[in-house]
Design brief:
By secondary structure, the chain is α+β, with helices and mostly antiparallel strands. It contains three helices and two strands. The chain has a two-stranded antiparallel ribbon. It starts with a helix and ends with a helix.
Amino acid sequence: MELLLTGRTNRMVGIQSSNITHHDIDEALKQEVMIDLELYDLAGILAR
């Protein structure tokens, strides 16, 4: 919300090392991210 209030747009908000961060959305989408499929599956099970 703070980003929008200051006029910052096209930002991706996330958490890195327990800190809330933001990055340019175009740059963020260019990065390849490896997902731990076991944790992904576990999240699906816990969300039920």
